[in-house]
Design brief:
Layout: H1 27-43, H2 47-50, H3 56-68, H4 95-108, H5 111-125, H6 142-148, H7 167-177, H8 183-202, H9 209-221, H10 226-234, H11 237-247, H12 255-267
Length: about 270
């Protein structure tokens, strides 16, 4: 069972959803962020979380059970386990969902889950594309779409171009498998995070902050590199935490920013 302030955001599947409408479209992202944050906070011995996760095995086992609901035996991932909703389909898993999940896998040492996902990603996307080949909010038939989707969304069940998955995802795979022989390549990949750090420091937009924070935090926990350390120094903790509070504005779990704040203050500049 998760801490008390987390429970209002849990649905009948034990997944983190939006508070008012119980929408699970970003559940896999939220689950990845939650377990990555819980793993990082344990490193700091914060009492509320450490009391629950005093033994690393407890953290590992509960996270593994949650991710089991989102991942098939062949490795394919979905956004949420509810098969009656569009986000329960296996062809909607986008890059913004993928990065927090892989970051959590790396931090928690869920190598078996990461390996299954890697094989599916290699087979179906050549490690270059995610598996979101259908548009969000769409249902297979017009009748089902009109019954379940929002009125402002026009039905379009045609295929779409999936998200591109490049250096940031490849870097997460290296960390998932702790492939130290690829560490020089990881140094190069983390150089792109330095560029992201500059963008996030000097632009006010909070878009994609969850992916950036996931990469920053797992880059501190697993196989740190000089380029990742530079990204940490460039990143303003106050600025990125403020962006997180704006991003998780109440509908999505607003305590997510508080969960990451101690870690970001430790690894980033002021």
């Amino acid at each position: 069972m998760k801490p008390i302030h987390v429970r209002p955001y849990e649905d009948k599947f034990g997944m983190l959803v939006q508070l008012s409408n119980r929408d699970g479209g970003d559940t896999s992202r939220n689950m990845g962020m939650y377990w990555l944050g819980a793993c990082a906070i344990e490193e700091l011995s914060i009492s509320e979380y450490t009391a629950k996760y005093a033994h690393p095995g407890i953290l590992f086992e509960e996270a593994d059970l949650d991710f089991e609901k989102l991942q098939r035996s062949d490795g394919r991932m979905r956004r949420h386990p509810d098969i009656d909703k569009w986000y329960g389909a296996w062809d909607r898993f986008s890059r913004d969902q993928m990065i927090p999940v892989l970051a959590a896998y790396a931090a928690l040492g869920l190598k078996q889950r990461a390996w299954k996902f890697f094989k599916d990603h290699l087979k179906n996307g050549w490690l270059l594309f995610s598996t979101n080949t259908k548009h969000n909010y769409m249902y297979p038939t017009l009748k089902e779409h009109l019954a379940k989707s929002t009125p402002d969304v026009q039905w379009n069940y045609s295929d779409k171009m999936p998200d591109l998955t490049v250096w940031d995802v490849w870097a997460l795979y290296i960390r998932c498998f702790q492939s130290w022989y690829l560490w020089p390549l990881l140094v190069v990949f983390d150089g792109f995070t330095v560029i992201d750090a500059i963008i996030h420091r000097y632009l006010s937009d909070s878009k994609h902050v969850e992916k950036f924070v996931s990469i920053l935090v797992v880059g501190d926990l697993v196989m740190p590199t000089p380029t990742m350390r530079l990204a940490h120094k460039i990143t303003s903790a106050d600025n990125i935490i403020s962006k997180m509070y704006r991003y998780w504005d109440g509908e999505d779990p607003p305590w997510m920013a508080s969960l990451f704040a101690p870690t970001l203050r430790r690894i980033c500049s002021k």
